[in-house]
Q: What sequence folds into this?
């Protein structure tokens, strides 16, 4: 989507200028008595077009965006925001880097790894502040912690980051990750574990796959990676390009103001926010209202920044994740954490 700049137009009648030049008080009086003059002045607000690409199809985690759109928070900030869904989950960062879209939702480790590949993107806000991606095993099994996966089969979607998480968790728990067999199941994580094809999965989210498995009669136990040596990373972040930050930083600040209001609305009105989300569900990916309601309940505390503003990013978090990625040979040592994020 091409970036559209709408030029600012001052629609002030010539007679108004004449009135001001003659007598400012008369000019004020003419405004009071002439509603059309006031209407013209109200149109003197620049509207800036922004595009944002989701990380996936619309679901509970995106409620703050639709709340900001529906309640007019973007409009209040002078923004015309277009929310797009990716055709491929890997598209967003590439399109932002190429300045084809303005903003995208992605993941903290991926932003750092993108910087390592000379892809000029930077996070401007932490949306989900803790991992949603947990290691999952059937509840009715003999696996009680990651070390029990020594020698077992683990399904994942062939992502190096997930391999590193699995190794870290098993080793940190006292097991031997070298004896575990990693099986690429693509995106078929749910059938892989529900049919017993694998003993565990990595890549399933506690607010989605775990809820679906439970609903389908296959409850799982999930292990939080942060309990087993993986840094407490931001699961979802808002990303812009370096060039975009140079050109549109003021608009991005306005965007953050609007989504902060949107998130506050979601926190105060979860049912209403859920209804706004359901109105935007994608036809190819219909939403289960019960699943999304539970998902939102899980998400809200994980999106809360406490005493800080919604979206605030801790420098220490970026450094810890950078160091862990480097230790696991996923990132060059010359990549600096401070280059991968900015608090606007």
A:
């Amino acid at each position: 989507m091409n970036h559209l700049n709408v030029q600012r137009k001052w629609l002030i009648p010539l007679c108004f200028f004449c009135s001001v030049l003659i007598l400012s008080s008369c000019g004020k009086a003419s405004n009071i008595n002439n509603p059309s003059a006031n209407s013209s002045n109200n149109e003197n607000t620049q509207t800036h077009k922004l595009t944002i690409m989701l990380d996936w199809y619309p679901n509970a985690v995106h409620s703050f965006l639709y709340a900001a759109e529906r309640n007019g928070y973007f409009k209040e900030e002078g923004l015309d925001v277009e929310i797009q869904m990716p055709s491929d989950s890997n598209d967003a960062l590439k399109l932002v880097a190429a300045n084809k879209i303005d903003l995208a939702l992605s993941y903290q480790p991926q932003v750092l790894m993108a910087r390592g590949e000379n892809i000029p993107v930077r996070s401007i806000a932490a949306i989900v502040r803790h991992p949603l991606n947990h290691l999952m095993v059937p509840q009715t099994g003999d696996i009680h912690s990651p070390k029990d996966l020594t020698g077992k089969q683990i399904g994942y979607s062939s992502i190096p980051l997930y391999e590193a998480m699995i190794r870290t968790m098993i080793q940190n728990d006292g097991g031997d990750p070298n004896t575990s067999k990693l099986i690429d199941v693509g995106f078929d994580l749910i059938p892989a574990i529900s049919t017993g094809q694998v003993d565990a999965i990595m890549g399933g989210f506690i607010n989605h796959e775990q809820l679906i498995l439970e609903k389908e009669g296959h409850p799982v136990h999930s292990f939080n990676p942060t309990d087993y040596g993986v840094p407490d990373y931001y699961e979802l972040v808002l990303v812009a390009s370096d060039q975009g930050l140079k050109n549109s930083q003021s608009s991005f600040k306005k965007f953050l103001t609007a989504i902060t209001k949107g998130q506050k609305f979601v926190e105060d009105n979860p049912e209403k926010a859920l209804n706004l989300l359901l109105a935007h569900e994608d036809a190819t990916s219909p939403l289960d209202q019960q699943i999304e309601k539970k998902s939102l309940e899980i998400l809200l505390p994980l999106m809360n920044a406490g005493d800080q503003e919604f979206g605030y990013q801790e420098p220490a978090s970026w450094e810890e994740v950078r160091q862990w990625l480097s230790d696991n040979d996923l990132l060059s040592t010359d990549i600096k954490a401070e280059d991968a994020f900015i608090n606007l």
